[in-house]
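Re-running the complex after MR caught last week's input typo. The corrected sequence lines follow. Everything else is unchanged.
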Amino acid sequence: MSNVRSQATQYLVEDVFSKTDQDSFHKYFFTQHNYFLTLSKTIRETDADKDLLFFFSQVFSRKGQVLDTFAKRFNSISDPSSFYRNYSLNYDNSTSESLIPRDSSTLPQNISDVYNKIILIFSSALDESFEDGMQSHFSKDLEKIIFKYIFRSINALITVLLDPATNTELVSEALRLLARIKQSETYNIRLWILEQSLRNYSARIRDSATLGLSSIDDPKSIPALKDAIQREIYPELREDMLTVLSQLENSWKCR
Amino acid sequence: MPLILRKIRKPKWYKNPGVPWLKGEDLQADALGDLNSKDNKLSVWLIEDNRSNLERVIAALASTCDSPTNIDIVLLEQNVLDKLSIRWLTTIGDSCDDEINKAFHIDLIQLTATKLFEFAGQIQQNGTKTRFLEKHVVQMLTKQISTGNISRDKIKQTLLDDIS
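Corrected-run output:
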């Protein structure tokens, strides 16, 4: 994790995500709008992590309809990573700004409701045991939410998955679920989440992301996996990634 | 030398630097979650020393799942049980392959916490951990179904829907 990313993430986790009351959290953030702009400028200047910038904009967007429209545009794009790199570069323009509303006096229930539901599912699953191939209460509940709220749930889920404080085992299970569900509207964004999770600080999460990509078996993920293999410091995991890469490359040849 | 097989989740058994805070040959606490005993017994499978039944046991493990998945396993030499003074008994497994259930399933019995921990230590130090990816597992399972070794009727519908 780059220094800027870890600093930015740490700040957010400690100072913003720690708000226990989600309404306070939203109101707090929107009064700190200038901070966010400064932070995003810092990230962009250091070229550290434009993807993180994208996530922040998703997290702090209040307007459900805008989120849905954005996510639908995002999902129709064949190469999401280049799209939101461009999006981040154009962040200062009015299109991007409109995703961060300045008026925080009213909170739409739809966004915080879905986020709260997901937080509750994660909290309830802390004592649950998981086994490969076996459906858990956690995965059943999360799957229901994803099918009910589609993009809003995925966007809320991204926030939870990105939070370093979230239990790594639950993040791993969520990633496996994202790979398994059959939902064409969110296919691209789910694939993207798995690819991004190859960069997670936790080897367990990187492994789950690798297994998720193996399960989806889409050769589009080959570049992301190759990058991950170059970065991977743990030999056993690197070996497993190489096996999945071989699978994806064979799938590519068969198409 | 015959081997014993236990289904695990590989990341729970990562050492340093996969888990940076682990020291030396320490085991993650979560690894013990792969050795959940019931009534002080632990279910394991016997694998022939030439591994001729390995694929069939993997398919049998997969046959009880709700959905297609990778299968991570660890293989240990069976004489580890003697070294650790762990008693075992031939019992019937609960997979969807009746023949495998009768021929290759044992329970490690009268387990103490100490023996279980030592068993975990043996897995960590001497176990061969292997991953079978989902695609490969589905191929193995489909083969056992088509040969009649696993009956479709015994497999959960959710799994059948995904592998058909």
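None of the earlier attempt is carried over here. The two ends of chain B are 37 Å apart (CA to CA). Chain B touches chain A at residues 7, 9-12, 14, 17-19, 30, 33, 36, 62, 65-72, 129, 131, 133-135, 158 (CB under 8 Å).
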